[in-house]
UniProtKB/TrEMBL annotation:
Superkingdom per UniProt: Bacteria
Signal peptide: 1-28
Gene3D superfamilies: Bordetella uptake gene, domain 1, Periplasmic binding protein-like II
Keywords: Signal
Name of this protein: Tat pathway signal protein
A Pfam family: TctC
Family: Belongs to the UPF0065 (bug) family.
PANTHER family in UniProt: BLR1237 PROTEIN, TRICARBOXYLATE-BINDING PROTEIN
Length: 329
């Protein structure tokens, strides 16, 4: 390098240093404006239950409004997930979504559709809830036990309607997993989210629903519906008398409906660190703990490294289940 080139290179160093400093300052100052937390379902479901108290806690901790945006476009949450995936990786568009995050791209591939998004576009921030799914029926339904339900379904193949949050969403996969194991065929009625599906069960439009304890507990206590089985590996505190599918002989039927916060994979590390700190503090807030425990869904917090491992393991299990179920409507 000659003298002139050396002087020209040296002249750029302060500018480069200033640019780096400004970038670091901008990230350290995060947030400077409102944050949007996309929930890819209507109000009333597990993702919405997780999002609202968490958003309120983040708003208090970060000092800027955190607005829950229900993108209830259907498709099992795929539309809202895809919108979050395409957002700028600046920490101002977050996603509170469910375990179906990994299932939906596989469903697209199964039907040879364009894939709306890939899981690799997201960075897990924190898990908030993780509940086994429960099988609910209206209080007026004739079935008092799971065996009665199965026996009736075998007599009337394809005639018992069940609701879901959309094709290959969490509620759909859980029910088809059970139906395949029991050797029965049910009638799938998809809705735009778990909230509308729950309303349909209460009105008698559908006769069965797989849903999280937090969205069912009050309805069961009010005598509007009953639960027949638990998709978890063990019984849960909010429904201690409810047997698991495994207890009832369905050894391969296990499904959890977890909710977690995600950002984009390219999110700068300083902003990710700030979000992780805020989430770790937020889930300890008394109002958050009380809201979840009242709903029967206690906090099941995992920080980003552990949550990433959890997502990878759970996704592999669910993708295998979807491939086994195959194409269903």
């Amino acid at each position: 390098m000659n003298r002139r080139e050396l002087l020209r290179a040296a002249a750029t160093l302060p500018l480069a240093h200033t640019a780096l400093a400004n970038s670091a300052f901008a990230q350290a100052a995060y947030p400077t404006r409102n944050i949007t937390m996309i929930v890819p379902f209507p109000a009333g479901g597990q993702a919405d239950l997780a999002a609202r108290p968490v958003a309120a806690a983040l708003e208090r901790i970060l000092g800027k409004p955190c607005i829950v945006d229900n993108r209830a476009g259907g498709a099992g949450g795929s539309i809202g997930n895809a919108q979050a995936a395409r957002a700028e990786p600046d920490g101002y568009t977050l996603l509170m979504t469910l375990s179906s995050l990994a299932v939906l791209p596989e469903a697209d591939r199964l039907f040879d559709r364009p894939v709306a998004y890939e899981v690799s576009q997201f960075a897990p921030v924190a898990r908030v809830l993780a509940d086994p799914t429960l099988l609910a029926v209206p209080a007026s339904a004739p079935w008092k036990t799971l065996q009665e339900f199965v026996d009736d379904a075998k007599k009337r193949p394809g005639q018992i309607p069940y609701g879901s949050s959309g094709p290959y969403g969490t509620l759909h996969v859980a029910m088809e997993m059970f139906a395949a194991s029991a050797g029965i065929r049910l009638l799938h009625v998809p809705f735009r989210g778990a909230g509308p599906a729950l309303t349909a069960l209460l009105s008698g439009t559908v006769q069965a629903l797989a849903s999280a304890p937090g969205t069912l507990k009050q309805q069961v206590e009010d005598g509007k519906m009953r639960v027949l089985a638990n998709w978890g590996n063990e019984r849960i505190a909010s429904f201690p008398e409810l047997p698991t599918f495994k207890e009832l002989g369905y050894k391969d039927v296990e499904f959890y409906i977890w909710a977690g916060l995600f950002a984009q994979a390219a999110l700068p590390a300083p902003i990710m660190s700030r979000l992780r700190e805020a989430m770790a503090e937020g889930v300890k807030a008394p109002e958050v703990i009380k809201t979840f425990e009242t709903a029967g869904s206690p906090v099941a917090y995992l920080d980003a490294p552990e949550f990433s491992k959890f997502v990878a393991a759970d996704s592999a299990r669910l993708i295998a289940a979807v491939k086994k179920i195959g194409k269903v409507e």
